[in-house]
């Protein structure tokens, strides 16, 4: 299947699956480990991929949340993410996609400007998170946020849907986007 | 107690682009955190989850049923349309929250009513509170009324002051115009030709009288008569001192 579609399979009982797409394997692995260390009532499954499309021979569960990880230090990761975005169905962007930008702390090494990522997130109407995975203090809260988002996107939180979360997240982003 | 299967992590190695090699996914067992959970709690939680997921699928089906126009919209139009839809979502959410609030209030009031009917209404603390609230509300209304009256009075006084100011302004204006008129009249009068002619005649008459007087005086002096004895002569001679132009 060349295009990822949400809700195309039956959900596993009490499981939530997140797909992390990014070029840096070590980074993704670190994030995955932090996420799995979190206390969560449901089972978490973390899939890592360097880029989309995913090979279709795998029997993988329904993907609830896709996080595109962009490293601000390398333009290649941004291009990779932009390429992969084309293989995602439009209905995924109703709250089940997020962008994660790493390396914003070391301004001197940033070859991708922050506003580029912000604009990307704004075009796709998806939330943007920042993370510096080397610093342990940053990694844990981001992992917690991701776990919570994943739970909501998988439908494990009664009363809150992915779209609901999206509109909740949006109102806090907009004021900062006005000065772009 | 049933132990839950721990969290698993499945990692897939790099699949670079289309046509890349397919690798075997090594299964990495993540940390096993056994979570002791009551069976009933688990079932309830699963029930809630399934309900939520069912809701999501249903809404997805409903969304795909409604056919949207297939025309290719331009970027700006698409953005505008997306923003409109987002605003719609927000409005629906707000309306929902308001309705929930209203519903909660109604439920609260009925529960309160039932509670009151159950307990003895006379001695309940709730009744005391409500009576206190009513008393305070009456006080509030009274003080509102008083402040309103005072404001009215203030307004009246201010209005009167304004009226007085306006009246005094008009009066002063009148006075000024009158004064100006008088000044103009005076100026006109002074510059009138008649007065000039009269003044000239007066001057000429005075001069003639002076000349005649001088003639009489010289006559009297020249005749060597004793003018000091006759009062009429005295007066004529001594008139030399008086300056007739001042009369």
From TrEMBL, chain A:
<keyword id="KW-0539">Nucleus</keyword>
<dbReference type="InterPro" id="IPR020987">
    <property type="entry name" value="Centromere_Cenp-M"/>
</dbReference>
<dbReference type="GO" id="GO:0005737">
    <property type="term" value="C:cytoplasm"/>
</dbReference>
<dbReference type="InterPro" id="IPR027417">
    <property type="entry name" value="P-loop_NTPase"/>
</dbReference>
<keyword id="KW-0158">Chromosome</keyword>
<protein>
    <recommendedName>
        <fullName>Centromere protein M</fullName>
    </recommendedName>
</protein>
<comment type="subunit">
    <text>Component of the CENPA-NAC complex, at least composed of CENPA, CENPC, CENPH, CENPM, CENPN, CENPT and CENPU. The CENPA-NAC complex interacts with the CENPA-CAD complex, composed of CENPI, CENPK, CENPL, CENPO, CENPP, CENPQ, CENPR and CENPS.</text>
</comment>
<keyword id="KW-0137">Centromere</keyword>
<dbReference type="GO" id="GO:0000939">
    <property type="term" value="C:inner kinetochore"/>
</dbReference>
<dbReference type="Pfam" id="PF11111">
    <property type="entry name" value="CENP-M"/>
</dbReference>
<keyword id="KW-0963">Cytoplasm</keyword>
<keyword id="KW-0995">Kinetochore</keyword>
<dbReference type="GO" id="GO:0005634">
    <property type="term" value="C:nucleus"/>
</dbReference>
<comment type="function">
    <text>Component of the CENPA-NAC (nucleosome-associated) complex, a complex that plays a central role in assembly of kinetochore proteins, mitotic progression and chromosome segregation. The CENPA-NAC complex recruits the CENPA-CAD (nucleosome distal) complex and may be involved in incorporation of newly synthesized CENPA into centromeres.</text>
</comment>
UniProtKB/TrEMBL annotation, chain B:
<feature type="domain" description="Centromere protein H C-terminal">
    <location>
        <begin position="42"/>
        <end position="241"/>
    </location>
</feature>
<keyword id="KW-0995">Kinetochore</keyword>
<dbReference type="InterPro" id="IPR008426">
    <property type="entry name" value="CENP-H_C"/>
</dbReference>
<keyword id="KW-0137">Centromere</keyword>
<feature type="region of interest" description="Disordered">
    <location>
        <begin position="1"/>
        <end position="36"/>
    </location>
</feature>
<dbReference type="GO" id="GO:0043515">
    <property type="term" value="F:kinetochore binding"/>
</dbReference>
<comment type="similarity">
    <text>Belongs to the CENP-H/MCM16 family.</text>
</comment>
<dbReference type="InterPro" id="IPR040034">
    <property type="entry name" value="CENP-H"/>
</dbReference>
<feature type="coiled-coil region">
    <location>
        <begin position="47"/>
        <end position="102"/>
    </location>
</feature>
<dbReference type="GO" id="GO:0005654">
    <property type="term" value="C:nucleoplasm"/>
</dbReference>
<dbReference type="Pfam" id="PF05837">
    <property type="entry name" value="CENP-H"/>
</dbReference>
<dbReference type="GO" id="GO:0005730">
    <property type="term" value="C:nucleolus"/>
</dbReference>
<dbReference type="GO" id="GO:0051382">
    <property type="term" value="P:kinetochore assembly"/>
</dbReference>
<protein>
    <submittedName>
        <fullName>Centromere protein H</fullName>
    </submittedName>
</protein>
<dbReference type="GO" id="GO:0007059">
    <property type="term" value="P:chromosome segregation"/>
</dbReference>
<keyword id="KW-0539">Nucleus</keyword>
<keyword id="KW-0158">Chromosome</keyword>
<dbReference type="GO" id="GO:0000939">
    <property type="term" value="C:inner kinetochore"/>
</dbReference>
<dbReference type="GO" id="GO:0007052">
    <property type="term" value="P:mitotic spindle organization"/>
</dbReference>
<keyword id="KW-0175">Coiled coil</keyword>
